[in-house]
Amino acid sequence: MSSARHLIDQAFGEQKELRKRSHEAIAIHPQLEDLFADVSQYIISLRGLSKLQGDQPPKKRKLDSGVSGTEAQHDIWNRGAYSTIKELSFTVPQRKKLNLDLGNATTGLRAKNTTTDEVEFAIKWQDVAQIVCLPVPEKAQVQYNFCVFPINGDGITNASEAGSVKEQMLWTVPNTAPKGGLFSDDVSHGPDETYKSIIIRLLNERLKQREGHSVQIVEPDPTEFVSETAQPYKKGDKAVHVKAFRGNKDGFLFFLPTGIFWGFKKPLIFFSFDSIDSVSYTSVLQRTFNLNISARGTLFNSETQEYEFSMLDQGEFANISAYIKRHQLQDASLAEQRRAKKLNINGVKGKIPGEDQTDGPGELEKAAQEAGDLEDEEEEDDENFDPGSEGESEGSGTSDEEEDGNEPVGEDHADDVDDTP
Protein backbone atom coordinates (compact mmCIF):
# COMPACT_ATOMS: atom_id res chain seq x y z
CA MET A 1 0.00 0.00 0.00
CA SER A 2 1.37 3.42 -0.96
CA SER A 3 1.95 6.05 1.73
CA ALA A 4 -0.78 8.24 0.17
CA ARG A 5 -3.34 5.42 0.29
CA HIS A 6 -2.43 4.71 3.91
CA LEU A 7 -2.79 8.40 4.88
CA ILE A 8 -6.15 8.66 3.10
CA ASP A 9 -7.49 5.61 4.92
CA GLN A 10 -6.25 7.01 8.24
CA ALA A 11 -7.61 10.52 7.63
CA PHE A 12 -11.09 9.62 6.42
CA GLY A 13 -11.58 6.61 8.70
CA GLU A 14 -15.20 5.50 8.49
CA GLN A 15 -16.02 7.86 5.59
CA LYS A 16 -15.99 5.00 3.07
CA GLU A 17 -17.40 7.04 0.19
CA LEU A 18 -14.74 9.77 0.56
CA ARG A 19 -11.99 7.18 0.79
CA LYS A 20 -13.27 5.45 -2.36
CA ARG A 21 -13.56 8.69 -4.36
CA SER A 22 -10.08 9.77 -3.27
CA HIS A 23 -8.51 6.51 -4.40
CA GLU A 24 -10.39 6.67 -7.73
CA ALA A 25 -9.22 10.24 -8.32
CA ILE A 26 -5.59 9.22 -7.77
CA ALA A 27 -6.00 6.23 -10.11
CA ILE A 28 -7.29 8.53 -12.88
CA HIS A 29 -4.92 11.42 -12.09
CA PRO A 30 -1.72 10.03 -10.50
CA GLN A 31 -0.25 13.54 -10.29
CA LEU A 32 -2.77 14.30 -7.50
CA GLU A 33 -1.33 11.67 -5.17
CA ASP A 34 0.96 14.12 -3.33
CA LEU A 35 -1.89 16.61 -2.92
CA PHE A 36 -4.22 14.00 -1.40
CA ALA A 37 -1.39 12.85 0.88
CA ASP A 38 -0.81 16.41 2.16
CA VAL A 39 -4.53 17.00 2.74
CA SER A 40 -4.82 13.70 4.59
CA GLN A 41 -1.79 14.51 6.74
CA TYR A 42 -3.31 17.89 7.63
CA ILE A 43 -6.61 16.27 8.66
CA ILE A 44 -4.74 13.79 10.84
CA SER A 45 -2.78 16.60 12.54
CA LEU A 46 -5.97 18.57 13.22
CA ARG A 47 -7.59 15.52 14.76
CA GLY A 48 -4.59 15.03 17.04
CA LEU A 49 -4.61 18.69 18.11
CA SER A 50 -8.33 18.52 18.88
CA LYS A 51 -7.80 15.46 21.04
CA LEU A 52 -4.92 17.15 22.86
CA GLN A 53 -7.02 20.19 23.72
CA GLY A 54 -9.98 18.04 24.72
CA ASP A 55 -7.81 16.12 27.19
CA GLN A 56 -6.69 19.30 28.96
CA PRO A 57 -8.56 20.42 32.09
CA PRO A 58 -10.62 23.62 31.66
CA LYS A 59 -8.27 25.72 33.83
CA LYS A 60 -5.27 24.73 31.74
CA ARG A 61 -7.00 25.59 28.50
CA LYS A 62 -7.83 29.01 29.89
CA LEU A 63 -4.19 29.67 30.76
CA ASP A 64 -3.16 28.95 27.20
CA SER A 65 -4.70 32.23 25.99
CA GLY A 66 -1.27 33.83 25.56
CA VAL A 67 0.27 31.38 23.09
CA SER A 68 -0.93 27.80 23.06
CA GLY A 69 1.53 25.08 24.00
CA THR A 70 1.35 23.60 20.51
CA GLU A 71 2.02 26.92 18.81
CA ALA A 72 4.80 27.82 21.23
CA GLN A 73 6.57 24.49 20.76
CA HIS A 74 6.08 23.93 17.05
CA ASP A 75 6.00 27.41 15.55
CA ILE A 76 7.65 30.51 16.94
CA TRP A 77 10.04 28.65 19.23
CA ASN A 78 11.66 26.81 16.33
CA ARG A 79 12.92 30.09 14.90
CA GLY A 80 15.88 30.58 17.20
CA ALA A 81 17.67 29.86 20.45
CA TYR A 82 16.36 30.83 23.86
CA SER A 83 17.69 31.28 27.40
CA THR A 84 16.21 29.47 30.40
CA ILE A 85 15.87 30.41 34.07
CA LYS A 86 14.80 27.44 36.16
CA GLU A 87 12.46 27.15 39.14
CA LEU A 88 11.07 30.68 39.28
CA SER A 89 8.19 31.32 41.69
CA PHE A 90 5.12 32.48 39.72
CA THR A 91 1.96 33.88 41.32
CA VAL A 92 0.16 35.20 38.19
CA PRO A 93 -1.58 33.69 36.28
CA GLN A 94 -1.04 30.70 38.56
CA ARG A 95 0.87 30.06 41.78
CA LYS A 96 3.53 27.57 40.83
CA LYS A 97 7.27 27.05 40.35
CA LEU A 98 8.05 27.05 36.64
CA ASN A 99 10.97 27.32 34.24
CA LEU A 100 11.06 30.52 32.18
CA ASP A 101 12.27 30.54 28.57
CA LEU A 102 13.26 33.85 26.96
CA GLY A 103 13.32 33.49 23.17
CA ASN A 104 14.92 35.75 20.60
CA ALA A 105 13.32 38.96 19.34
CA THR A 106 10.98 37.12 16.95
CA THR A 107 9.56 34.77 19.60
CA GLY A 108 8.61 35.63 23.18
CA LEU A 109 8.70 34.28 26.73
CA ARG A 110 7.07 31.10 27.98
CA ALA A 111 6.69 29.30 31.31
CA LYS A 112 7.14 25.53 31.37
CA ASN A 113 6.40 22.79 33.85
CA THR A 114 9.57 21.88 35.77
CA THR A 115 8.78 18.15 35.56
CA THR A 116 7.11 17.55 32.21
CA ASP A 117 8.64 20.50 30.30
CA GLU A 118 5.12 21.24 29.03
CA VAL A 119 4.30 24.87 28.23
CA GLU A 120 1.91 26.30 30.83
CA PHE A 121 1.51 29.79 29.32
CA ALA A 122 3.41 32.14 27.03
CA ILE A 123 3.38 35.51 25.29
CA LYS A 124 5.07 36.86 22.18
CA TRP A 125 7.38 39.86 22.55
CA GLN A 126 5.15 41.73 20.10
CA ASP A 127 2.23 41.36 22.53
CA VAL A 128 4.11 42.83 25.52
CA ALA A 129 2.99 46.36 26.43
CA GLN A 130 4.92 46.90 29.67
CA ILE A 131 7.19 45.08 32.13
CA VAL A 132 7.85 46.49 35.60
CA CYS A 133 10.29 45.29 38.25
CA LEU A 134 9.29 46.22 41.81
CA PRO A 135 10.57 45.44 45.31
CA VAL A 136 8.25 43.16 47.26
CA PRO A 137 6.86 45.14 50.24
CA GLU A 138 6.93 43.98 53.84
CA LYS A 139 9.59 41.30 53.42
CA ALA A 140 12.58 40.93 55.75
CA GLN A 141 14.72 39.74 52.83
CA VAL A 142 14.80 41.86 49.69
CA GLN A 143 12.87 40.30 46.80
CA TYR A 144 11.64 41.63 43.46
CA ASN A 145 8.48 41.04 41.44
CA PHE A 146 8.61 41.07 37.64
CA CYS A 147 5.17 41.99 36.25
CA VAL A 148 4.40 41.53 32.54
CA PHE A 149 1.46 43.48 31.08
CA PRO A 150 0.27 42.37 27.62
CA ILE A 151 -1.29 44.74 25.11
CA ASN A 152 -4.85 45.55 26.28
CA GLY A 153 -4.04 43.70 29.51
CA ASP A 154 -3.35 46.69 31.77
CA GLY A 155 -6.22 45.83 34.12
CA ILE A 156 -8.18 48.86 32.86
CA THR A 157 -9.13 47.88 29.32
CA ASN A 158 -12.40 45.94 29.04
CA ALA A 159 -11.34 42.40 28.16
CA SER A 160 -14.67 41.58 26.48
CA GLU A 161 -14.28 44.56 24.14
CA ALA A 162 -10.60 43.84 23.46
CA GLY A 163 -11.32 40.30 22.31
CA SER A 164 -8.50 37.85 23.01
CA VAL A 165 -6.31 39.35 25.74
CA LYS A 166 -3.14 37.60 26.83
CA GLU A 167 -2.49 36.66 30.46
CA GLN A 168 -0.60 38.94 32.82
CA MET A 169 2.48 37.36 34.39
CA LEU A 170 4.19 37.83 37.75
CA TRP A 171 7.22 36.01 39.08
CA THR A 172 9.44 36.70 42.11
CA VAL A 173 13.22 36.51 42.51
CA PRO A 174 15.51 37.03 45.52
CA ASN A 175 18.08 39.81 45.53
CA THR A 176 20.94 37.30 45.57
CA ALA A 177 23.47 35.81 43.21
CA PRO A 178 21.95 32.95 41.21
CA LYS A 179 22.47 29.39 42.34
CA GLY A 180 24.51 27.16 40.09
CA GLY A 181 22.65 25.36 37.33
CA LEU A 182 19.53 27.54 37.39
CA PHE A 183 20.49 29.52 34.28
CA SER A 184 21.08 27.88 30.92
CA ASP A 185 24.68 27.66 29.72
CA ASP A 186 24.26 30.51 27.23
CA VAL A 187 23.66 33.03 30.06
CA SER A 188 26.91 34.52 31.30
CA HIS A 189 27.03 36.71 34.39
CA GLY A 190 29.58 38.44 36.57
CA PRO A 191 30.27 37.68 40.24
CA ASP A 192 28.37 40.78 41.40
CA GLU A 193 25.22 40.17 39.34
CA THR A 194 21.95 39.02 40.88
CA TYR A 195 18.81 37.29 39.64
CA LYS A 196 17.28 40.71 39.16
CA SER A 197 20.12 42.31 37.19
CA ILE A 198 20.58 39.28 34.94
CA ILE A 199 16.87 38.95 34.10
CA ILE A 200 16.54 42.70 33.43
CA ARG A 201 19.52 42.52 31.07
CA LEU A 202 18.10 39.50 29.23
CA LEU A 203 14.65 41.08 28.91
CA ASN A 204 15.94 44.46 27.72
CA GLU A 205 18.19 42.83 25.11
CA ARG A 206 15.18 41.14 23.54
CA LEU A 207 12.63 43.90 23.93
CA LYS A 208 14.77 46.55 22.24
CA GLN A 209 15.22 44.30 19.19
CA ARG A 210 11.56 43.62 18.55
CA GLU A 211 9.72 45.21 15.66
CA GLY A 212 7.89 48.46 16.30
CA HIS A 213 8.46 50.59 19.40
CA SER A 214 10.87 49.27 21.99
CA VAL A 215 9.94 48.58 25.60
CA GLN A 216 12.31 48.76 28.55
CA ILE A 217 11.89 47.43 32.07
CA VAL A 218 10.45 50.09 34.37
CA GLU A 219 11.74 50.36 37.95
CA PRO A 220 10.96 52.77 40.80
CA ASP A 221 12.93 56.02 40.71
CA PRO A 222 13.63 57.72 44.08
CA THR A 223 13.62 61.09 42.33
CA GLU A 224 10.02 60.40 41.30
CA PHE A 225 8.64 59.11 44.59
CA VAL A 226 9.76 57.79 47.98
CA SER A 227 7.64 57.04 51.01
CA GLU A 228 8.01 58.97 54.26
CA THR A 229 6.43 56.22 56.33
CA ALA A 230 8.81 54.33 58.59
CA GLN A 231 9.56 50.79 57.42
CA PRO A 232 10.54 48.76 60.51
CA TYR A 233 11.35 45.66 58.46
CA LYS A 234 13.94 47.58 56.37
CA LYS A 235 15.55 50.10 58.70
CA GLY A 236 17.40 52.83 56.86
CA ASP A 237 15.69 51.88 53.60
CA LYS A 238 13.00 54.21 52.32
CA ALA A 239 10.09 52.43 50.71
CA VAL A 240 8.91 53.29 47.20
CA HIS A 241 5.34 52.13 47.73
CA VAL A 242 2.23 53.20 49.62
CA LYS A 243 -0.18 50.77 51.26
CA ALA A 244 -3.85 51.22 50.35
CA PHE A 245 -7.18 49.45 49.93
CA ARG A 246 -9.31 48.97 46.85
CA GLY A 247 -12.68 47.96 48.19
CA ASN A 248 -11.89 45.33 50.82
CA LYS A 249 -8.63 44.21 49.19
CA ASP A 250 -5.36 45.56 50.49
CA GLY A 251 -2.44 46.21 48.18
CA PHE A 252 0.31 48.63 47.23
CA LEU A 253 0.59 51.66 44.96
CA PHE A 254 3.88 52.41 43.19
CA PHE A 255 4.39 55.83 41.59
CA LEU A 256 6.71 55.07 38.66
CA PRO A 257 8.37 57.18 35.93
CA THR A 258 5.80 56.03 33.34
CA GLY A 259 2.66 55.51 35.40
CA ILE A 260 1.02 54.25 38.59
CA PHE A 261 1.04 50.54 39.47
CA TRP A 262 -1.39 48.66 41.75
CA GLY A 263 -0.70 45.13 42.97
CA PHE A 264 0.05 42.44 43.75
CA LYS A 265 -3.27 40.61 43.63
CA LYS A 266 -5.09 39.72 40.42
CA PRO A 267 -5.76 41.67 38.39
CA LEU A 268 -2.65 43.82 38.43
CA ILE A 269 -3.30 47.38 37.21
CA PHE A 270 -0.95 49.74 35.41
CA PHE A 271 -2.18 53.30 34.89
CA SER A 272 0.13 54.64 32.19
CA PHE A 273 0.17 58.43 32.04
CA ASP A 274 -1.65 58.44 28.71
CA SER A 275 -4.49 56.33 30.18
CA ILE A 276 -5.14 58.74 33.07
CA ASP A 277 -7.78 61.44 32.68
CA SER A 278 -7.31 62.94 36.13
CA VAL A 279 -6.36 62.24 39.73
CA SER A 280 -8.27 63.65 42.70
CA TYR A 281 -8.50 63.23 46.46
CA THR A 282 -11.47 62.56 48.74
CA SER A 283 -12.10 61.84 52.42
CA VAL A 284 -9.01 63.77 53.46
CA LEU A 285 -8.96 63.27 57.22
CA GLN A 286 -6.42 63.65 60.00
CA ARG A 287 -4.81 60.25 59.47
CA THR A 288 -5.84 59.05 56.02
CA PHE A 289 -7.10 60.12 52.62
CA ASN A 290 -8.43 58.46 49.46
CA LEU A 291 -6.84 58.64 46.01
CA ASN A 292 -9.20 58.57 43.01
CA ILE A 293 -7.85 57.82 39.53
CA SER A 294 -10.04 58.45 36.50
CA ALA A 295 -8.67 56.38 33.61
CA ARG A 296 -9.67 54.75 30.33
CA GLY A 297 -8.48 51.65 28.51
CA THR A 298 -6.27 51.44 25.44
CA LEU A 299 -9.11 50.80 22.98
CA PHE A 300 -10.44 53.63 20.82
CA ASN A 301 -13.38 55.40 22.50
CA SER A 302 -12.92 53.45 25.75
CA GLU A 303 -15.12 54.86 28.49
CA THR A 304 -13.60 56.53 31.54
CA GLN A 305 -13.67 54.51 34.75
CA GLU A 306 -13.13 55.60 38.34
CA TYR A 307 -10.72 53.74 40.63
CA GLU A 308 -10.74 54.61 44.33
CA PHE A 309 -7.86 53.67 46.62
CA SER A 310 -8.66 54.28 50.27
CA MET A 311 -6.93 54.69 53.62
CA LEU A 312 -3.62 56.04 52.34
CA ASP A 313 -1.52 57.35 55.23
CA GLN A 314 -1.69 61.12 55.58
CA GLY A 315 2.10 61.20 55.92
CA GLU A 316 2.38 60.26 52.23
CA PHE A 317 0.26 63.07 50.79
CA ALA A 318 3.05 65.60 50.20
CA ASN A 319 5.19 63.29 48.05
CA ILE A 320 2.16 61.91 46.20
CA SER A 321 0.89 65.41 45.52
CA ALA A 322 4.32 66.46 44.21
CA TYR A 323 4.34 63.45 41.87
CA ILE A 324 0.81 64.17 40.60
CA LYS A 325 1.62 67.85 40.01
CA ARG A 326 4.96 67.08 38.33
CA HIS A 327 3.17 64.99 35.72
CA GLN A 328 0.09 67.26 35.73
CA LEU A 329 -2.21 64.31 36.29
CA GLN A 330 -4.66 66.39 38.30
CA ASP A 331 -5.67 68.31 35.17
CA ALA A 332 -8.21 66.45 33.01
CA SER A 333 -7.82 69.07 30.26
CA LEU A 334 -4.30 67.75 29.58
CA ALA A 335 -5.40 64.12 29.14
CA GLU A 336 -5.57 64.39 25.35
CA GLN A 337 -2.10 65.95 25.26
CA ARG A 338 -0.71 63.03 27.23
CA ARG A 339 -2.27 60.62 24.73
CA ALA A 340 -0.96 62.66 21.80
CA LYS A 341 2.52 62.57 23.29
CA LYS A 342 2.23 58.78 23.67
CA LEU A 343 1.22 58.47 20.00
CA ASN A 344 3.98 60.92 18.96
CA ILE A 345 1.53 63.23 17.21
CA ASN A 346 3.22 66.37 15.88
CA GLY A 347 1.90 69.87 16.29
CA VAL A 348 0.48 69.46 19.78
CA LYS A 349 0.53 72.87 21.41
CA GLY A 350 0.26 73.94 25.00
CA LYS A 351 1.81 72.49 28.10
CA ILE A 352 3.44 69.11 28.13
CA PRO A 353 3.11 67.07 31.31
CA GLY A 354 6.06 67.70 33.58
CA GLU A 355 6.74 71.25 32.37
CA ASP A 356 5.88 74.54 34.10
CA GLN A 357 4.39 73.19 37.28
CA THR A 358 1.58 75.31 38.59
CA ASP A 359 2.18 77.49 41.62
CA GLY A 360 0.04 77.65 44.68
CA PRO A 361 -1.58 74.95 46.77
CA GLY A 362 -3.04 71.93 44.98
CA GLU A 363 -6.30 70.15 45.68
CA LEU A 364 -4.75 67.80 48.22
CA GLU A 365 -2.94 70.59 50.06
CA LYS A 366 -6.19 72.55 50.34
CA ALA A 367 -8.06 69.52 51.65
CA ALA A 368 -5.27 68.71 54.07
CA GLN A 369 -5.26 72.31 55.30
CA GLU A 370 -9.00 72.06 55.91
CA ALA A 371 -8.45 68.85 57.85
CA GLY A 372 -5.75 70.58 59.90
CA ASP A 373 -8.01 73.56 60.59
CA LEU A 374 -10.72 71.15 61.68
CA GLU A 375 -8.32 69.45 64.08
CA ASP A 376 -7.35 72.84 65.57
CA GLU A 377 -11.03 73.68 66.05
CA GLU A 378 -11.62 70.36 67.79
CA GLU A 379 -8.67 70.95 70.12
CA GLU A 380 -10.00 74.44 70.90
CA ASP A 381 -13.42 72.95 71.64
CA ASP A 382 -11.77 70.48 74.01
CA GLU A 383 -10.05 73.30 75.89
CA ASN A 384 -13.32 75.26 76.28
CA PHE A 385 -15.46 72.24 77.10
CA ASP A 386 -17.45 72.48 80.35
CA PRO A 387 -18.12 68.96 81.71
CA GLY A 388 -21.21 70.24 83.47
CA SER A 389 -22.90 71.57 80.36
CA GLU A 390 -23.29 68.15 78.65
CA GLY A 391 -23.58 69.81 75.25
CA GLU A 392 -26.63 71.96 76.09
CA SER A 393 -25.08 75.34 75.31
CA GLU A 394 -24.27 76.48 71.78
CA GLY A 395 -20.45 75.91 71.34
CA SER A 396 -20.11 72.90 73.60
CA GLY A 397 -19.46 69.94 71.37
CA THR A 398 -20.83 68.93 67.98
CA SER A 399 -23.87 67.20 66.63
CA ASP A 400 -23.94 63.52 65.72
CA GLU A 401 -23.86 64.38 62.03
CA GLU A 402 -20.74 66.52 62.46
CA GLU A 403 -19.00 63.80 64.41
CA ASP A 404 -19.76 61.24 61.70
CA GLY A 405 -18.40 63.52 59.01
CA ASN A 406 -15.21 64.63 60.78
CA GLU A 407 -14.13 61.55 62.66
CA PRO A 408 -10.63 60.44 61.57
CA VAL A 409 -10.36 57.05 59.94
CA GLY A 410 -7.43 55.29 61.60
CA GLU A 411 -6.60 51.85 62.86
CA ASP A 412 -9.73 51.75 65.02
CA HIS A 413 -11.92 52.26 61.94
CA ALA A 414 -10.43 49.76 59.53
CA ASP A 415 -13.75 47.94 59.35
CA ASP A 416 -15.32 51.02 57.77
CA VAL A 417 -13.54 50.44 54.47
CA ASP A 418 -15.89 50.17 51.51
CA ASP A 419 -16.38 46.48 50.69
CA THR A 420 -17.32 47.05 47.08
CA PRO A 421 -14.72 45.64 44.66
Describe what this molecule looks like in 3D:
With 421 residues, this protein is α+β, with helices and mostly antiparallel strands. The chain is built from eleven helices and 14 strands. It has a seven-stranded antiparallel beta sheet with strand order 4-3-2-1-7-6-5. Helix 1 packs antiparallel against helix 2 and helix 1 packs across helix 3. The longest helix has 23 residues, at 33-55. The protein is elongated.
Label the CATH architecture of the largest domain.
Roll
Total domains: 3
Low-pLDDT stretches: 58-65, 68-74, 345-360, 378-421
- Overall geometry comes to elongated
- Measured as a percent range, the helix fraction is 25-40%
Largest β-sheet summary = 7 strands, antiparallel
Distance between the first and last residues' Cα: 66 Å
Q: Which series of helices and strands comes N to C?
A: HHHHHEEEEEEHEHEEEEEEEHHHH
Strand % is 15-25%
**Mean pLDDT score:** 77
The CATH topology of the largest domain: PH-domain like
> Helix segment count?
11
State the CATH superfamily name of the largest domain. Pleckstrin-homology domain (PH domain)/Phosphotyrosine-binding domain (PTB)
Sheet/helix structural class: alpha+beta
Radius of gyration: 29 Å
